[in-house]
Design brief:
Blueprint: E1 4-8, H1 18-25, H2 31-39, E2 43-45, E3 48-49, E4 61-65, E5 83-87, E6 91-96, H3 113-120, H4 134-137, E7 151-157, H5 160-171, E8 176-184, E9 191-200, E10 208-210, E11 217-230, E12 235-243, H6 250-257, H7 271-279, E13 287-294, E14 303-306, H8 311-319
Parallel strand pairs: 7-13
Antiparallel strand pairs: 1-4, 2-3, 2-4, 5-6, 6-7, 8-12, 8-13, 9-10, 9-11, 11-12, 13-14
Helix pairs in contact: 1-2
Length: 322
């Protein structure tokens, strides 16, 4: 089957729930499968994301991006080494290595950080938002995520009360997340305030883009230049990003909008940044979640957790200097 399908609602389907109409159209898939696709924003109506309860109208264009697998299987523990920065009865703070996917998905059913966490603390399998959702069950304990090739601090809840406490802080923007990025070129200003409205790219659903205030979600970051670097191949910068929101690919998109894409980012880079990354032998986007400041369950004051730079990131900084 083609992984991408588009069809138009006719009068016989008008007024029905979107998830019901789609599951009837493709009976080889379960209704729960399509519920999960809707939550992942892989089903769009007239180019917009929807809720499962959306009632379809005549002429609605339904666009479906099918997952590689029909269902995500049960997540089990795997012996994968993890770097634990802090642990108590409520939380686990990890220094995530670059190259590891955070949670299972249709394309990554094993070898993830969640698989490693379950092996370390099996009871975390019950720490989920919705036990009826396959997506939720594949993400036990997670209150935020990092991209596969992004390294650094990630906090995990070990019980449902902690999950609610941590999630509330993140939703209310009471958490401070600080990232370091090695970016192409030198920014025009040494510091700045970035505001974008991010959503799925209209032509490439795997990418995120600034799609405007009416359709996108607000993404806010402050940045400051730490250091300039120059090589015989070109210039690059070490930049600190303090993000106020946690949108998918936020820093990577905003750095690209500044004309200073993260080196090694083959998704949001340009020809010049990709050429420099190749010459410097950079094999992944050099983005690191350096610091997380958050209040742990039961505490009154926030704690700061910091992750050391990974070897490949540090070697680029040490090899070149003005």
């Amino acid at each position: 089957m083609d992984k991408h399908k588009i069809f138009t609602i006719d009068s016989a389907e008008m007024g029905e729930r979107a998830d019901k109409v789609i599951s009837l159209k493709f009976p080889e898939y379960s209704r729960n499968y399509f519920l999960n696709l809707i939550k992942e924003r892989k089903i769009l109506v007239n180019k917009n994301s929807i809720k499962p309860s959306y009632l379809v109208k005549v002429g609605d264009n339904i666009e479906i991006e099918f997952s590689d697998k029909k269902e995500i299987g049960e997540t089990s523990g795997e012996k994968i080494g993890i770097d634990i920065l802090y642990e108590d009865e409520n939380v686990l703070v990890i220094n995530k290595k670059p190259g590891i996917v955070v949670h299972p998905s249709a394309g990554h059913t094993g070898g993830t950080l969640v698989n490693a966490i379950i092996d370390h603390f099996p009871a975390i399998k019950d720490v989920v938002y919705d036990k009826k959702s396959a997506i939720s069950m594949a993400r036990p304990g997670l209150v935020h995520r990092l991209d596969k090739d992004t390294s650094g601090v990630i906090i995990v809840a070990k019980n449902n009360k902690s999950m609610r406490t941590l999630s509330r802080q993140i939703q209310n923007r009471n958490v401070r997340k600080t990232y370091l990025a090695i970016c192409f070129g030198w920014p025009k200003n040494d510091s700045g305030h970035l505001v974008s409205f991010l959503g799925r790219h209209p032509k490439n659903r795997k990418k995120i883009a600034n799609i405007g205030e009416t359709q996108g979600k607000e993404a806010i970051s402050d940045y400051s230049l730490i250091k300039h670097f120059e090589t015989k191949y070109g210039k690059f910068s070490l930049i600190e990003f303090d993000i106020k929101t946690g949108r998918t690919h936020q820093i990577r998109v905003q750095a690209s909008e500044m004309s200073n894409p993260v080196l090694g980012d083959d998704f949001y880079g340009n020809k010049l940044s990709e050429a420099l990354s190749l010459k410097l032998n950079i094999k992944r986007q050099l983005l690191h979640a350096k610091k997380l400041e958050i209040t742990l369950p039961g505490d009154r004051k926030s704690k700061v957790f910091e992750a050391p730079l990974p070897e490949d990131f540090e070697s680029v900084l040490n090899d070149f200097i003005i």
